Amino acid sequence: MGPLRGITILDLTTVLIGPYATQILADMGADVIKVESPEGDIVRQLGPGRTKGMGGMFLNVNRGKRSIVIDLKQVEGRDALLRLAAKANAIIYNVRPQAMARLGLGYEALAAANHAILYVGLFGYGQTGPYAAKPAYDDLIQGASGIPTLIAMAGDGTPRYVPITVADRVVGLKAVNAILGGLMHQHRTGAGQRIDVPMFEEMAEFVLIDHLGGLTYDPPLDHGGYARLLSQHRRPYKTSDGHICALIYNDKQWKSFFGAIGQPEMLEQPRFATHAARHAHINEIYQEVGRIFLTRATAEWTELLERADIPVMPMHTLESILEDPHLDAVGFFKTTEHPVEGRIRQMRVPSTWSATQPEPAGPAPTFGEHGRDILREGGFSPEEIERLGQQGAVQLPPSPR
Q: What is the pTM of this model?
């Protein structure tokens, strides 16, 4: 009974950017049909798993979907997809548009099969620029949008990538926004359209909102960059026995902090007097506060800062976050029984809705698990389904007894 109940989405995406977006749509109630090639989504092979093709990362971005295996390089496979598209609200892909055109699955072909379809592409670069045909991966887009440079500026001078697929996730979320907007237009007008969501442009905007700074102006006022975010000392504070995450930001918090540690006279220093002054001296201020945090243990700091109403959080590891008391209280993690993988840990949909709460519709599918059902619902006769299987245009699961 999610908000997207009744919406059908053909999901041709692989790896992370597209599957992350379509899992969000599936959680909201859309019927997401994962169309896989005979080789399968490569993410099925990533990370530890109990059975072949069901790696942990795959389970975490493909729940609630149905899987069908179609060889789109065969004419019969392409035609089968177009028949399914006639009843779909949207088709989403994340290969280069040139590859879709070579398969005979460009926007014109899909619009001819269904004039109302939403045709959404998630790929590297806008199609009117010189990078149009270039391949794109998360690392490349992080680099092109300036993230490793920012990390080098804030660290030891060594450029690095963020150790999560941040470009895939951010652009995946932006794709969800675009898809929901396209579905609203479709609902109001009955018309479809093509929507391109290019990773480079989307991430450039995402990064530069923080860091364009004085380069916003013509002529520029500075060389860009948000000084607080680029401070070499902006990091979890080291305590006498570990680390802690705290942010002393506004005037009230600075007054409370120095009062709590018994050094109210620190506020008399000009560098602490105003927000603008602190911004101008942020690197040395973070360094000074870092020395102060070394004087007490983590638990002592946590109690002191909470009493002073200063924002503080633990610095979790990948294992300790599983025991976080807040996440436990809100039921963030739950153990479910996967029909193939057995007991697995899943994360709940983080948002809460008073009427149409999104929920996972089911576990991540095995390879081609729902092929027969999807084709039957698409209007294919039993004979047509078996013929497609015999031709190899579709890989079918075993016939139910």
A: 0.94
